Amino acid sequence: MTYLAKPKFHHPDLPKNTLGYTHRDYEGTVSTLCAGCGHDSITAAIIQACFELSIEPHRVAKISGIGCSSKTPTYFLGNSHGFNSVHGRMPSVLTGANLANRDLIYLGVSGDGDSASIGLGQFAHSLRRGVNMTYIVENNGVYGLTKGQFSATADRGSKSKRGVINTDNSIDLAAMALQLGASFVARSFSGDKQQLVPIIKAAIAHKGASFIDVISPCVAFNNHAGSTKSFDFVREHNEAVNRLDYISSRMPIEIEYDPGTVEIVEQHDGSKIALRKLAADYDLHDRTAAMGFLQHHAAKGQIVTGLLYMETESEDLHAHLHTVESPLNALDEKDLCPGQAALDKFNAALR
C-alpha cells in the first residue's frame, strides 16, 4: 500500500494549543478513501478533538482491524503508536496492549463489518470487561471494500446499490453497548462535527469502556437501479473486453440542527435518513431508559444521536483485575518473576 505524506512545512501563524502544537501536528498521511467519504469527516473530528484536548500524540495508541474504517488511523495522529490487526480482532489486540501499558490513551477504530459481523464477539467482550478505551465504529451499513454488500447494521427494508432489499434485521451496536455494560455510549453523524467533536473529547476523558457509533455514509455505492448513467446499465449495454470501474467525487454531507429536533438528511443517492438529536434535558445516567429511548425512536425510523449514557463512577479492567499501578511494560524482571517463594505463597493462599 502506498501512502502519500503531507508536506511538513505550514504557516507559522497557525493556532496552537496549550502544548504549542498546531492542528497539523495531529494529522497523518493523505487519505486514499473516496472523495466525500464520511470516514474522512470522522478523521477530522478526531484530529480536532485531540488538538483541543492538548494530547501529546505519542501518548496515543490507535488500533484497528480490516475495512475502509480501519484504514483511517493512517490519516490522523501520525506521531502516535499504531497497530492494524486482522479482521474483527481489534478489541483483543487493544485489550492486550492496555494491560501491558495502562498509561497510554487507546483509540479503537472499527467498522460495522469489522465489529458487527466477524468481530461481534470481540466487540461484546471488550465492552463487558470495561477496557479503558474509546471504541469508535464508523458505520455505513455496507462492506465498502468488497463492493457494497449489506453489513449486519443495514436496516431491514433498505435498498442496495443493485436494488436488492435487505430482509435481515439489523444489529444496533449502541443498544448492544448499553446492554453489555459500557459506561459511556454515544451515537453521532459524521457530518455533524459540532456534535461529534465534543463526544469524542468526552469519550477520551472518560475512564472505562467508551463506545461511539458514528453513522458515516458511503459515497461509492449509491448508484441506483434504473439510471442510464449507472455502472450496471453501461456494462449491460456495452461489449467490453475488460471490466472497469470509476467512482466519482462527492461533497461531504454536513448538517447543523438543534437539540431535541429531528433532521431529515438526504444522502448522495437521494435516499433520506431521519436523525434525532437528544434534548438538553435528556437523562444520560439511566441505562434502562436509554435502551427504551433507542427502541422507541427506532420504531419511528429515527436514528438517535448524542451522548446516550454515561456512568459518573465507572471502573476499568485494571480496577476489576486489581493490577498494579505501574504499567507491566515498565516492570523489571525481579517484579515480573519474583521467584519460587512468592509462587508458593500465592498457591497456598488459594488452597
Integer tally of domains: 1
Shape: globular
User: What is the N-to-C succession of helices and strands?
Assistant: HEHEHEHHEEEHEHEHEEHEHHH
Broad structural category: alpha/beta
The CATH fourth-level homologous superfamily: Thiamin diphosphate (ThDP)-binding fold, Pyr/PP domains
Mean pLDDT: 82
Radius of gyration based on Cα positions: 22 Å
Largest sheet, in brief, is: 9 strands, mixed
- The tally of strands reads 11
Task: Tell me roughly what share of residues is in helical segments.
Answer: 25-40%
Q: Please identify, by name, the CATH architecture.
A: 3-Layer(aba) Sandwich
Distance between the termini: 55 Å
Reading off the top of the CATH hierarchy, the class is best stated as Alpha Beta
Q: Report strand %.
A: 15-25%
Q: What is the CATH topology assignment?
A: Rossmann fold
Q: Count the helices. How many?
A: 12
User: Which segments are poorly predicted (pLDDT under 50) over 5 or more consecutive residues?
Assistant: 222-248
